[in-house]
Each structure stands twice: as structure tokens, then as C-alpha cells.
Amino acid sequence: MIGGGYVGLVSGTCFAEFGTDVAIVETNPDRLTALREGRIPIYEPGLDRLVEENVEAGRLTFGDDIAAAVKGADAVFVAVGTPSRRGDGQADTSYVYAAVEQIARVADGYTVIVTKSTVPVGTGREIARIVRETRPDLDFDIASNPEFLREGNAIQDFMRPDRVIIGTDQYKPEGTERAQNILRKLYRPLYLLETPIVFTGLETAELIKYSANSFLAMKITFINEISDLCEKVGANVNDVARSIGLDGRIGKKFLHPSPGFGGSCFPKDTRALTAIGRNAGSPVRLIETTVAVNDQRMKDMGERIIAFADGDVRGLTIGVLGLTFKPETDDMREAASITVLDMLDKGGAHIRAFDPAGMTTARPVLPHSVTYCTDALDAAKGVDILVVLTEWNEFRSLAPEKLAREMKGRKIADLRNIWDPKTIKDAGFKYISLGRPDAVQPR
Fold it and tell me: Active site annotated at which positions (predicted)?
């Protein structure tokens, strides 16, 4: 497994749990040292125990020597970063191609080179060209095996996935069969659980990941816009979401109003899919709109808080509960808190913030003036307004009476709808949330 980041570490550890010998290659010295010392450099519930058990069993190792890791390997997975390229939103595949060239130079026999990274359509073909050019004598095949891991639930997603996608070069039937047999063996524990395993072509597998994430992002954006409409017409978005979610054709997931989607996948993958569409001469206009609406959504949430403060936050102290883009992760990538807190800071507010896991990762990307607190009640201490940005479960159980004792003001902006409006308002608070007629801001 080339890459010991989120995808590589989770995937490699879970393969080891299946009984496979896995060597994870990580070239970042600090990350490698942490892994070798048993310190997990990412926040993912249960991963530390799984890593420890498989290291002790001898199935999982960490190193920076690609040649040693690749020697004798049946399959080599590439799980390096593919960040958005500045300017056009396309995925930067330079790290993938650099890793592939190194793999080709040291491979010592038939090898299946598998992209686990999320890569644009056509990447597999380019990988094959690079390998042929680097090592004309090498016997190899290319496969695409996109991951569908949700941060905070990644182990369960790997061990009990909805499906496994395996793309191979269907223009090379004999290679397809050899590559499929190796990957089928690797995923045998899931096959025995009757997990759907979809074998398809390279281009199709590469497009599936972008399509899935973009559809989910579009679903989030849809319910956010419906939430705004509910506020205008006096409808309740919770009831709308539940009712349409009971339709089997729609489903209930990803229908929760929010300040907008963030994280390592949805923003990057929606931009990449729009770039793929433009380059192919087939624009995906729904996703282009989704990206634009989501970007504006985060700004709208900042403006909503400012409006809640009667149009001016200068000199006010604002408490913030939750910073990460979602609960059960320390990931701050493109979190709504970045946009919202920047707007509040520029508006002259003093910010007190608490997040159960993300404060270390938040410091480099949030305004330097933010005060980081020890817990939720500490974040509420002396504030004029309390804002909920991430729906950590521990926030749901906060008693409004305790908040009232800590807070100076009596305003709560719940941008995740975690509290019952009547309960909060009965405790003497002025309360706004998203898309609920009993908790909307007067206009």
C-alpha cells in the first residue's frame, strides 16, 4: 500500500485484518515514526486497536522503502493524495504518477497496480503508459478499486461495504482475468458475506467514485435549499426530509440541513467531476450548480449569524460548538467553520470554540484570535451568542439551564438542528435553526 494517509492506512489495516500480509509505504518521516511507534496520526474510532493487533500478528508493517514493500507483492495499491489543482479544480495526479514510476522500477514479477486514490477518468490508461515506458519488460496489469470510506465510520465501511468496485482493462481480456482473480482472492472475506462485487472497465470504475460523491453532495445541497424555502413558506424541513426519505427511490440519508458540505471528498470530487465534464465536452451542469450553491451556503450561514446579532457582531463574544466538517473526525478540510469564523472574526467578534477532536487541526486554518476551550460549557462561558456548527452527539445532551448559567446573552444559532426549539425557547433563549417554522429568524 503506497501511502499511509487516511485511505491507505485504513485500507491496508483492514486488508491485514482479512489475513493478508500488508506493507504500508509512507515517506513522510513524522508520520512514519508515529506509525512505527503505534501512534495513529489520524482520528478514526477503532483504528488504533486494529493497527496494534495486526502489527503484533506480523501481518502489517510500515516503512519507506518501496522496493522492499513491492518485492514479491501480487498487488500494489496506490493511495496517495489527489488534491484539487488550483485554477481549474481538476485532480492533481502528479503524486499518483510519481508513485507508479517508482513501482515500475522496482517490481520483480507479475504485478497488479491498483489505484485506490480517487483519480480522473483516463488515469488508468496513463498509468499503463508510464509503466510500459519505464519498464518495457515488466509483466503487469492495471486496476481501479475506488474507496467509499466515510470518516468516522471507515472501518465498518471497509468491512461491511455496500459494494466493491473493481475496474480492469477490458481491452486486454487475459490481463483482466489475471487481475480479477488476484483482487477477487483479496476480497474473498467480503465475497463470503455476499457483498456485491462489481467488475467493470477502468474508465467506468474511475467515474463511479466521482458520480457517487457528487450525487450525495447534490442531495445535501438540495435539502439545504428546501430548508431555505421552508423558512419562507412556514414549512418544516425535518418533516419534508423524513417524508421524502421514506420513498425507497430517494432514501433518508444525506437529507439533513447543514451549513454546507466539506471534508476531503465532496468538495474535491464535485470540482473534479465538473472539470472532467468540461474536458470531455459534456458539462455536468447540476454538479456545477451544486458547487456554486454550496460555496454560497457557507457565506450565507455567516451572514445569518451576523443578522441574528442585529447586523453587527463587533465587540460581541460568540461561542462555537463544533469545528470539523462532520462529527467523529478531526478533519478540517473545507469545513464550514473556516468560512463562518473568518466572517465573524473580520466582523470584530471575539470567538470561543470547542471541538471534541478537531482543535489541533483547526488552529492552522482558523483566525489566530480564536480562543480554544476545554469543553462545550467552557465555550459558552460569557458569550452573547452560541452557535452550533458540527453535530457532535455530546452537544445534544447539553441542558439549556446549564447553558443559561454560563452564557451572558440569550441567543442560540443551531445550524445543525440538534435541539428541540420549544425546549430551548422555554429556557428563555431566542433560538434559530434551519428550516423549522418554530425556530426561524424573523425577517
Answer: 265
